[in-house]
């Protein structure tokens, strides 16, 4: 059986960067179903590639951890600005013997199905992509979807925002107006209104569906967030990939707060002034999912043609606590978390 790409998120962020990055690394150790020297992990990033301080970086961290545990090597590739070379990059990795090949982001949906059919002996995984296409067609029995219950983690982000807001108005800035990012919006709005039915939630997307520039336009994100803060919002949740820095900059200028996404962005930003405004981050543990998937591959336990779901119960999503900004409301957040796990709260996936 085979499997395929993971990485998210958002998840999930797209926009574009260099074309093919030949950089690779290696590590010692090893063991499992595949000999350590045979393990060659191929990573095909979403737009921007490594250095997005978000889910591309998280995917890399997962691959790096797998190499440290099992030995082997990896290769990274990043699509060009318009993403037109995605299929070529996936095929290139497979042709060069990288296996498994992990694609990061929903933009690989139809592309990975075509490439997987051409390389039936390669195991593929897709972060933020199901093993099925929207019409229900399987991408192949050598493709595994690494899926995250982003709506659940975003619900908790909405709870935190509503509990911490002093103005009764909060905001959401999405990178691209597509169903995946709308899942974050839906959870965030549901969590906030569960705590405060009268809260106002301002929503803006940087770019429309089909235009992935919204994941790499921090200047535009800053303008949108500034408008929200000027309008009375005191906390803004950004789900915008590389554009998220603009939201943090707007929060710092307004003396307000922001919520990060995918990684613990309190720990990934360089500027202490920006770090100080990041109240929490909605975590999508792409790193854990990638490491676990590679481990299953090494052990020969990958079952292709299926999805692996990472949710609150499995700690696949959650909220970062670095900085201590939400320590005083942690008990309430934990209560809502348990209600979701128990099924007492069903979180919507559409706004």
From TrEMBL:
SUPFAM superfamilies, alphabetized: Periplasmic binding protein-like I (SSF53822)
Pfam families associated with the record: Bmp
Gene Ontology terms: cellular component: plasma membrane
Residues annotated as signal peptide: 1-18
Family: Belongs to the BMP lipoprotein family.
The protein's name: BMP family ABC transporter substrate-binding protein
PROSITE patterns registered for this protein in UniProt: PROKAR_LIPOPROTEIN (PS51257)
């Amino acid at each position: 059986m085979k499997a395929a790409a993971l990485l998210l998120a958002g998840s999930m962020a797209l926009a574009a960067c260099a074309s093919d990055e030949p950089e690779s690394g290696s590590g010692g150790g090893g063991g499992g179903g595949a000999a350590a020297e045979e393990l060659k992990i191929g990573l095909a990033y979403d737009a921007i590639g490594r250095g997005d301080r978000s889910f591309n970086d998280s995917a890399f961290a997962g691959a790096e951890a797998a190499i440290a545990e099992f030995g082997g090597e990896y290769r990274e590739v990043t699509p060009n600005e318009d993403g037109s070379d995605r299929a070529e990059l996936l095929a290139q990795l497979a042709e060069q013997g990288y296996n498994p090949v992990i694609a990061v982001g929903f933009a690989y949906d139809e592309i990975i199905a075509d490439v997987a059919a051409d390389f039936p002996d390669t195991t593929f995984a897709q972060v933020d992509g199901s093993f099925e296409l929207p019409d229900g067609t399987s991408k192949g029995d050598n493709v595994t979807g690494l899926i995250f219950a982003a709506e659940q983690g975003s619900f908790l982000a909405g709870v935190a925002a509503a509990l911490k807001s002093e103005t009764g108005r909060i905001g959401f800035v999405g990178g691209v107006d597509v169903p995946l990012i709308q899942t974050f919006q839906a959870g965030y709005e549901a969590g906030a209104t569960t705590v405060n039915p009268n809260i106002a939630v301002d929503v803006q997307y940087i770019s429309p569906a089909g235009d992935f520039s919204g994941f790499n336009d921090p200047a535009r994100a800053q303008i949108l967030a500034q408008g929200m803060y000027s309008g009375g919002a005191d906390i803004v949740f950004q789900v915008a990939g590389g554009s998220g820095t603009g939201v943090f900059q707007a929060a710092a200028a307004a003396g307000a707060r922001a919520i990060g996404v995918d990684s613990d962005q309190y720990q990934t930003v360089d500027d202490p002034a920006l770090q100080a405004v990041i109240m929490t981050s909605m975590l999508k543990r792409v790193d854990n999912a990638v490491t676990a998937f590679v481990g299953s591959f090494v052990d020969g336990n990958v079952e292709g043609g299926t999805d692996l779901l990472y949710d609150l119960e499995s700690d696949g999503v959650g909220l970062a606590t670095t900085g201590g900004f939400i320590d005083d409301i942690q008990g309430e957040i934990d209560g809502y978390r348990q209600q979701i796990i128990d099924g007492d709260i069903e979180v919507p996936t559409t706004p």
